[in-house]
Amino acid sequence: MNTYSKKVALNGVSDQWHKIILSNECFQTVKPDLSDIRIYGITQNDTIEVPYFLSLSKEIRSNTTIPFNLLNIVDDRKGYYFTYELDALETINEIQLNFANINFNWTVSLEGSQDQQEWFNILRDYRILSIVNEQTDYSYTNLKFKNSKFPYYRITINTSEKPILKSATILKRAVQDPEYHTYPENKLEIQEENKNTIIHVDLKKKYAVSLLKLAIDNSVDYYRPLTIQYLVDSTKTDKGFHYNYRTLAKRTLSSMEANIINIPSTLTQKFRLIIANNDNQPLEIKEVVTKGYIHTLTARFTKPASYYLVYGKSPDRYPIYDITNIKNNIPQNISVLTLGNEQQIAKKGQIVSGPLFKNKVWLWAIITIIIMALGFFTVQMMRKKI
Questions:
Q1: Burial of 243 (0-12, 13-18, 19+ CB in 10 A)
Q2: DSSP character for 371?
Q3: d(CA 344, CA 349)
Q4: Helical spans, DSSP H, in 28-135
Q5: What is the four-CA torsion angle of 87, 89, 93, 99, rounded to 10 degrees?
Q6: Scanning 64, 234, 335, 352, which has its CA 20 to 30 A from the CA of 116?
């Protein structure tokens, strides 16, 4: 254990299996790839290494594709109509449309019917679009709506241009949102440079970030390429610190979506977001909210001991444990251990330096003796000269 820098006591070990939720405090010390995390148990005559695996609280998606038949395609002065019949009466909440057309901006209506005689509005003036040029390649053609249950659906595309619909997919989506840490308010610095808006996000501490949400105050439509970078390291120069960033992801900001951006979970303190404005006015960025997945260790305990979570070692490697291959055999209801306070681990052979003289009386006594000795030798030298 003394090769690691920090330890945290694990309280409440009573069963074979337990979960441990990593704290934000842990992220300040652990390596960026989290490879230096270990669990050790201390007994009277032995040290036990506890196997574990790491999991993140990602969202759970369940997508069911609903079979259907295309009944007809017709058009008139108002637009083009596509009518579908489901093979069985099912609840749906999304229709994915795939067009051969590019560079379009259309409004769409979606209706449902029990008998094709009376139609009920589900979506009205819903926008779909495609933009392909040198600066961007963006499309938004999925119809999303609340749960609906009709045997017949009709899509109306309001356009004079003939839409070439290559395919359609009717879905029932079920999404269970993940648990997140919402991190404290961050510091934003925004600058305009070479037709780009550069947003510097400083979290003040290191966190494992997996979601960015941009609050943009604009009343006009926009579609802007976005580059997300994170700080790798910094170098001190005569002119100050030089920060080295690495590109993490590239996305598109759009007025049609919520601008909630999922990214690979990344341990860092600083982000840089680069919005390419081209010849457009810069967007008004009000806020950047940062969140991170809950990081959970699932561990197997086999003996009574005093157990500790330790971390902070460079270099180190990922541990290889058998339990990563037997996850299906692990019980479902596992209790979560409580964490003690983080402690610094004293290194083996480390000498704690202290003051040479803890009592000031001894210090003054020695100073007095030195002064008296200097005075004595000075007098003796003066007498010899006389």
A1: middle
A2: H
A3: 15
A4: none
A5: 20
A6: 64
